Amino acid sequence: MNWCVIWSVLLWITVTYASKPTYKWKDRKTNEKLLCEKCPPGTRVAQHCTKDMPTVCKPCSDQYYTQYWNYLEKCLYCNVFCNTMEVEVVACNRTHNRVCQCKPGYHSEWFFCTEHSKCPAGSGVVQPGNPQEDTTCRPCSEGTFSSKHSNKDDCQPHQNCSEQGLQVNVPGNRFHDTLCTTCQDGKGLEEGSGSGDCQEAAIDFVPFHLKSVRRLRRLHRKLGKNPAGRDKQKTREELQVDLHTHLIQLKNVHGKEQVWEMLQGALEKMKLQNILETIQKQFLVGL
Fold first, then answer.
1. Interior/surface letters 240-256, b for 16+ CB within 10 angstroms, e for the rest
2. What is the pLDDT of residue 175?
3. How far is CA 54 from CA 46, 80, 84, 110, 159, in A?
4. Among 50, 129, 134, 254, which residue carries the largest CB count within 10 Å?
5. Which residues make Cβ contacts (< 8 Å) with residue 133, sequence separation at least 6?
6. Alpha carbon 211 to its chain's center
7. Contact 219, 270 (CB under 8 A)
8. CA-based end-to-end distance of the chain
9. HEC readout, the chain
10. pLDDT value of residue 284
11. Residue 15 in contact with residue 32, Cβ under 8 Å?
């Protein structure tokens, strides 16, 4: 190995990185061409070098900066200002212009801050959005679900009914969880639970047994809730989850017996006798 070559390379690296950057300058008085040292970041040239004097540098004033080694006679003005959708992440200082980024919940897109997208029902968040990138979503895999639009939550695993000593009432899919029940042959599995458990199972069963978008919306109206205009864009699976959520809310207010009567009456008015017969056969709930 040639040690002379190695020492030469090391010496070149040391000299290169230790020496200050320079610039060519012509003395205005003598017309002499000089090689002057540049001023470091945060300063400017107060006086260019002469044959007998090195460059004189002066610190930048407030609200002014130079980011690199330079031979500017004036520092640059901090001309970046954060708008209402941005937050300041680096304040203006002598070496940097002000730096802004989109505020939490937003990301930069074509020079504008845009709200992070929400993953639709049936999909979960792989990567939450950040100031530079939007939310990344993926469809829920088998055995998992997401029943709401979210820009934070990933898909959740279906509950296991058998582990809880329960029966599967409604199998889960990527839009909703598995729904379990204690109802079997018209009776609750637990002693003394009675037919109330079967009424509750029937209430859970109905939204997911309806396959028609039109019928789902109509039943929603029959139960006292007019779907919002944006509901017209929702899929059947989303409408099923919405109807089930509405029934749970009614049940919490009025109790399952009254809600079952309301639901039964609505199905009769819609002439959905086949669903009523399926419920009577499966849950032995009186018609």
1. bbbbbebbeebbeeeeb
2. 97
3. 11, 33, 46, 46, 77
4. 129
5. 107, 127
6. 31
7. yes
8. 98
9. CCHHHHHHHHHHHHHHHHCCCEEEEECCCCCCEEEEECECCCEEEEECCCCCCCCEEEECCCCEECCCCECCCCCEECCCCCCCCEEEEECCCCCCCCEEEECCCEEEECCEEEECCCECCCEEEEECCCCCCCCEEEECCCCEECCCCECCCCCEECCCCHHHCCEEEECCCCCCCCEEECEECCEECCCCCCCHHHHHHHHHHHHHHCCCHHHHHHHHHHCCCCCCHHHHHCCHHHHHHHHHHHHHHHHHHHCHHHHHHHHHHHHHHCCCHHHHHHHHHHHCCCC
10. 79
11. no
Tokens at 172, concatenated: 């889960």
Q: Are strands 43-47 and 56-59 parallel, antiparallel or unpaired?
A: antiparallel
Q: What is the pLDDT of residues 165-219, one digit of tens each?
A: 999 999 999 999 999 999 976 555 444 444 688 999 999 999 999 999 999 999 9
Distance CA 210, CA 176 (A): 15
- The per-residue pLDDT for range 26-78, each reduced to its tens digit, is 998 899 999 999 999 999 999 999 999 999 999 999 999 999 999 999 999 99
């409408």: which residue's tokens?
A: 239
Phi and psi based region of residue 14 (left: phi greater than 0; alpha: psi -120 to 50; beta: remaining): alpha
Considering the entire predicted model, what is its pTM?
Answer: 0.71
Nearest to 113 by CA among 128, 134, 96, 97: 134
Under 8 Å CB-to-CB from 141, ≥6 apart: which residues? Answer: 155, 174
Report the C-alpha dihedral over residues 223, 227, 232, 236, rounded to 10 degrees: -40
CA distance 174 to 241: 11
